[in-house]
From TrEMBL:
Pfam families: YceI. It comes from Seonamhaeicola marinus. This is YceI family protein. Gene3D superfamilies: Lipid/polyisoprenoid-binding, YceI-like. Residues 22-191 form the Lipid/polyisoprenoid-binding YceI-like domain.
Amino acid sequence: MKTLLFITTLCLSVLTNAQEKEFRISTSKSYVEWEGSKTFEMGKHSGTVNIKSGAMKLKEFKIVGGEFIIDMNTIENTDGRYNAMLVDHLKNDDFFSVAKFPEAKLSITQVYYKDNVNVEVFADLTIKGITNPIKFKGKLDFRKDGIKLHTEFSIDRTLWGVDYKSKGLFGAVKDGIISDAIKFKVAIIWFQDMC
C-alpha cells in the first residue's frame, strides 16, 4: 500500500509540472468485450476484440485526450456457440466489412471529472469509415501495475451502417431481428512508471 501511494504521488507530481504528457497504453492488459442480442428472443452472443495501439494524454494529472485503434480482424466469439461461422459473419459485409475496414478508432475529445475517480468522457467513434460522437461514464482505478479507466456503454450500430436484420429496416416485429444496441465493456490501462 505504501509503495503504491508513493508511486502514485510521484507520478502525479511529475505530471503537475508538465504541460501535456502522452502515455502508451498496455495493449496486453487493456481489453474490449462486446455483447449483441436478438430483440425478441433470449439468444445473445458475446466476445472480445483487441486494441492494436493507443495512447492517453494527460495534463496536470488529468485526462485531456486519447486515441485507440481497434483491430477488427481480432473479433472473437467467447460464448462457444457457432464460433467460426459467427465470427466470419461479423467480419463480412453484413456487419463490419473487415476486409475493407480492418480498423476502428476511438478518439477522446473531452473529459469531465466529477471527482478524483469518476469521469464523463466524450469521444468520436469510427467504425466502417463512419464517425459519430459518443459519451460514457468511466471510473479510474489507481493500481499497482498502472492506472485503469474502465467503462460500460452501448451504441446504436445502425449509426455506423451496420444494418443487418435491424428493427428499423423491417419496420415490424419479425423473428430473428437483432437488437440495434451493441454493449461494450472496456478497460484501458496505462503504466505509472512511464510518467
